Amino acid sequence: MTETLYADTLAGGRHWSLVVRRGLILRLTDLEGGANAGMLLYNPLNPLERINLPDTLKCQHTFKLTRGHCLYSDMGRIFCSIVSDDVGWHDASGGTCNRALVERKWGALTYQAARNDYLRNGRDSFLIELGKYGLGRRDFAANVNWFSRVEIDSEGGMRFVPGHSPAGASVWLRFEMDTLVLLHTCPHPLDGAAEYPRRPVRYELLRDESLAADEFCRNSRPENERGFANNFLYHLGIPEE
Predict the structure, then answer these.
(1) CA–CA separation, 125 vs 98, rounded Å?
(2) Residue 77 and residue 51: Cα distance in Å, rounded?
(3) Whole-angstrom Cα distance, residue 156 to residue 142?
(4) Measured distance CA(76)–CA(232) in Å, rounded
(5) Is 241 inside a domain boundary?
(6) What is the C-alpha radius of gyration for the chain, rounded to an integer number of angstroms?
(7) Where does residue 216 fall: left (phi above 0), alpha (psi -120 to 50 degrees), or beta otherwise?
(8) How many structural domains are present in the chain?
């Protein structure tokens, strides 16, 4: 039985952050299709520990993220596992857009001119959320882009696939440790849309005992077994509440 604890919608071109507790599921849903959801992860008790996408991809022998994959910290622990996925491919190499890129592609629309409809960018959105926790530019890491797909051509160039995610598609993340989650819905940096994309993403915190017992992610790679073992040792040092 799935219990929804909290739900809200992050409009296109916006940002948010929250701490997701161990054992909960964060479900992200692309409401209209073609969304992009940038994400960074940190240990709220020690923000020096953060998502490490190079290790995440390398240890699981993959270029994309989908069901069965885990998102690793730079200390070899698992922040979360992808326990369900309607999309099948999420980008982990494209990075995030910045102000100069957004202005070059879609123009400069400021808060003074457009109020809350001004054109946000991923880098500044992450910086605003990082600042809420005493973090800043030096705490940046490579980010995930949920619902986006980037392919590599025969010459090694990166190509964005427009409209990759259909309306209503979801990805379910089971958190294996308490995690500070930063989100934005700004455009993917390789998106070639003629107009600034504003695609909303719904986020929900769930409790699902059937997924809590799922072992697919743990057993999908020998490396993941070791990652879960690192989490076990880490939680031995945290008193139960």
Answers:
(1) 9
(2) 9
(3) 20
(4) 12
(5) no
(6) 17
(7) alpha
(8) 1
* 24 lies in some domain: yes
Residue 2: which of 173, 212, 216, 202 has the closest Cα? 212
The CA-based angle 148-126-31, given to 5 degrees, is 40
pTM of structure? 0.95
Q: Three-class SS of residue 149?
A: coil
Q: Residue 43 forms beta bridges with which residues?
A: 46
Nearest Cα neighbor of 73 from 172, 181, 171 is 181
Burial class (CB in 10 A: 0-12, 13-18, 19+), 154: exposed
Query: CA-based angle 236:172:134, to the nearest 5?
Result: 60
Total Cβ atoms within 10 A of residue 180: 22
Which residues face 203 on adjacent strands? 8, 28
Three-state DSSP at 219 gives: helix
The one-letter amino acid at 61: H
pLDDT tens digits, 146-183: 999 999 988 889 999 999 999 999 999 999 999 999 99
Asked, for residue 39, whether it belongs to a domain, the answer is: yes
Range of the domain at 167: 2-236
Neighbours of 53 (CB within 10 A): 20
Count of positions (residues) in the chain: 241
Residue 88: what residue type?
Answer: G
Looking at the domain assignment, is residue 193 inside a domain? yes
Q: Among all chains, which residue has been given the structure tokens 């070899």?
A: 76
pLDDT in tens, 38-92: 999 999 999 999 999 999 999 999 999 999 999 999 999 999 999 999 999 999 9
Structure tokens at 145: 């882009």
